[in-house]
Design a protein that fits this description.
By secondary structure, the protein is of the alpha+beta class. It has helices at residues 6-14, 77-89, 122-128, 144-152, 165-169, 187-194, 245-250; strands at residues 2-4, 28-31, 39-42, 45-48, 51-55, 58-59, 67-68, 73-75, 94-101, 109-115, 133-134, 162-163, 177-178, 207-211, 222-225, 240-242, 253-255. Strands 2-9-10-5-4-3 form a six-stranded mixed beta sheet, covered by helices on one side. Strands 16-14-15-17 form a four-stranded mixed beta sheet. It has a three-stranded antiparallel beta sheet with strand order 1-8-7, with helices on one face.
Length: 272
């Protein structure tokens, strides 16, 4: 989906972290069979059976992230990146080497995931296609050459202008602008387009997220509001949209205290 932004169209048209390598003894194998096909949660997360893996070594867009393309249109790059991963897998069996608990969300695992029989990881292919960034934890990232090639060829996100997915997830509006169509004299207009006041809701992702200083008391960055929350109807212009409570929690948001607990016993309502 694309949204025309006339303020920046003319100028944009004219201008146009890696984790350590896993040892064989440390890897735990989990293969999705025919009855446990991989479910793509977002561009950087897949589920095999009851286990959810975050793809190791990359920073991929969340479903609600927006980018600007080479025609100065604002487009839902997070949805496109997720769809690219779905197409890449194409219903084929997936194998993940489990390298431990995801340090950012304990309910998920970190995985080096590959299509069965393909030596190239999904992480590397997404970076090659320009739909994820290499994550560097040392001087040289694992997929740094792949990212350089994607940038030079204007692949995926690199064809236009965007912020790093981690900056979008944290609401860091002053983060570095990336891509091949980011004219410096339109910095403010570009940032307003990438972080609009009225962020479009992705299909089936109706959980509202709002950054909140008070959430830091519980170690979170924001608060999410379900449709069952009393605060939901009056909460306009959410900062984030989530497709599930797990997605919201993984992004560092906690549930609003005025939300009903699902299936509360004996009809009682318990706030969290």
């Amino acid at each position: 989906m694309r949204f025309r932004n006339p303020v920046i169209t003319t100028l944009l048209l004219t201008c146009l972290s890696a984790s350590p390598v896993l040892s064989a003894t440390a890897a735990l194998s989990a293969t999705a069979g025919p009855a446990a096909a991989a479910i793509v949660k977002d561009a950087g997360t897949v589920q095999l059976g009851n286990t959810v893996y975050r793809l190791d070594g990359i920073d991929a867009p969340a479903a609600d992230q927006l980018c600007i393309d080479e025609h100065a249109d604002v487009w839902t790059c997070g949805i496109e990146a997720r769809d690219q991963l779905t197409k890449l897998i194409g219903g084929k069996p997936i194998h993940c080497d489990d390298i431990g608990v995801d340090p950012t969300f304990k309910k998920r695992r970190l995985g080096v995931c590959k299509i069965e029989g393909d030596p190239t990881s999904l992480s590397q292919v997404l970076v090659q296609k320009g739909y994820a960034l290499n994550v560097e934890t040392s001087a040289t990232g694992r997929f740094k050459p792949d990212q350089a090639t994607a940038k030079d060829s204007r692949a995926g996100l690199w064809k236009g202008c965007f912020v790093a997915p981690r900056d979008f997830r944290l609401g860091k509006k002053d983060g570095a602008l990336l891509g091949n169509a980011c004219p410096a004299d339109r910095d403010t207009q570009i940032r307003n387009a990438l972080f609009p006041d009225d962020l479009p809701m992705p299909a089936s992702c109706n959980i509202k997220g709002k950054y909140a200083v008070r959430a830091r008391v519980t170690g979170n960055v924001g608060i999410y509001h379900l449709q069952a929350c009393r605060s939901y109807p009056g909460l306009g212009n959410p900062d984030r949209w989530f497709c599930s409570e797990e997605d919201a929690q993984a992004a560092g948001f906690r549930r609003a205290y005025n939300c009903r607990t699902p299936k509360a016993s004996e009809g009682q309502v318990r706030s969290k």
